[in-house]
TrEMBL record:
Domain of life of the organism encoding this protein: Bacteria
Official protein name in the record: NUDIX domain-containing protein
Pfam families recorded: NUDIX
Nudix hydrolase domain span: 28-157
PROSITE patterns per record: NUDIX (PS51462)
Signal peptide location: none
Alphabetical list of InterPro entries matching this protein: NUDIX_hydrolase-like_dom_sf, NUDIX_hydrolase_dom
Length: 172
């Protein structure tokens, strides 16, 4: 079972932890991370969720994501999730998330990195990942329309592709 650190509404870590699935108080939140890897051609590495995975079984998803466990920084959680799900080692210590999306029960940090990966060298986590492939923005949006991709807002997917080379929301 995973243990999570809890945070307040200002993202200050509380001196409290819970087990995944335990109820949180209304003023308690937890940390989630997502990593999006793009190759030098501008395609995103996406993964297909296992059919027995809770939440969006069999659907395609962005590169990787998951909850930070107790003691993890955002960067440590991103590194751990990427290695656990796809067998990719990447050092996040010197980078910060490109953006954070607040959701009902927490904070979701997004990391956007460019890294050419040989798909044959991936080590898929059998408990979570069924397959992986490179996909363009257009291919992902088509998968969303066909209900074959986790139903992210299309504008968020577009932002991932547009914002991958710099921080902020202004074109430079």
């Amino acid at each position: 079972m995973e243990k999570w650190d809890l945070y307040d509404r200002h993202r200050t870590k509380l001196e409290k932890q819970i087990m995944r699935g335990d109820p949180m108080e209304l003023d308690e939140f937890h940390l989630v991370v997502h990593v999006c890897i793009f190759n030098s051609k501008g395609d995103m590495l996406i993964q297909q969720r296992q059919p027995f995975k809770h939440g969006w079984p069999n659907l395609w998803d962005i590169t990787c994501g998951g909850s930070a466990v107790a003691g993890d920084t955002s960067q440590q959680a991103a590194s751990r999730e990427l290695f656990e799900e796809l067998g990719i080692s990447y050092d996040f210590r010197t980078i910060r998330p490109h953006f954070t999306i607040n959701f009902d029960r927490g904070y979701d940090d997004y990391y956007l990195i460019e890294h050419d990966i040989d798909l044959t060298k991936l080590v898929l986590q059998t408990e979570e990942v069924k397959a992986a492939k490179w996909a363009s923005k257009e291919e992902i949006l088509k998968l969303i329309q066909q209900n074959e991709f986790v139903p992210y807002y299309e504008s968020i997917l577009s932002f991932l592709f547009e914002g991958r080379h710099h921080y902020g929301s202004i074109r430079l």
